[in-house]
Predict the structure.
Amino acid sequence: MDEAPRILGRPDGERIAYRRVEGRGPTVAWLGGFASDMEGTKALALDAWAREKGRSFLRFDYFGHGASSGAFAQGTIGRWREDALAAIDELTDGPLVLVGSSMGGWIACLAALARPERVQGMVLIAPAPDFTEKLMQPGLPEEARAALARDGLWRPPWAQGDSYAISRALLEEGSRWSILPGPVAITAPVRILQGGADTEVPWRHALSLAEALEGEDVVFTLIRDGDHRLSRPQDLARLIAAVEEVSISSPA
């Protein structure tokens, strides 16, 4: 994209960067992962699909991510949930199909729980609900635990600056938004795509979400050789097919 992203102002003065494709509904809304942005492979594939098919599509960056304002290390699950709700409330109308990747799968669930009347369907890629407590915190090395106790912040040695910093606030606040073991009161059709070779979100964790959802129209697809990103051509084809499937389903 050559043009600059559009900006949605927030009451606190922060700014959410977004891109939107105008078209027929339901609007497909992309919710990215932790430390990711709206220019990733899957988001761009959906953008291209929307333009080709004349579909309505929205993608945006959370606070502290990509082109949005704010310091990444100050972000929390609750803040990113607020960003998602602001984006869909102010930038879209009518039915929604929420597409969430990794952390975005958790945020998508939180958004669906807050706006059940608008969500027609969901597609989740390697969804990571409760990851701060169940996946991230148990795997922290001792130096991380020491830094969090001492400074409230840990920067992994491989990270560039604050582009991937983990805060004590992120870990502590995340438990407020826990949805597992459920039940999770989402009844819209849900399609989950999960890599069997995913080392960041174990497939059994994603399956636990599928089992917790209250809706009957839930399909869990295990791609045995798929990694966490699921961005190969065949993975993108599965993603688009899943989005098309729930887009034409009747609202729950």
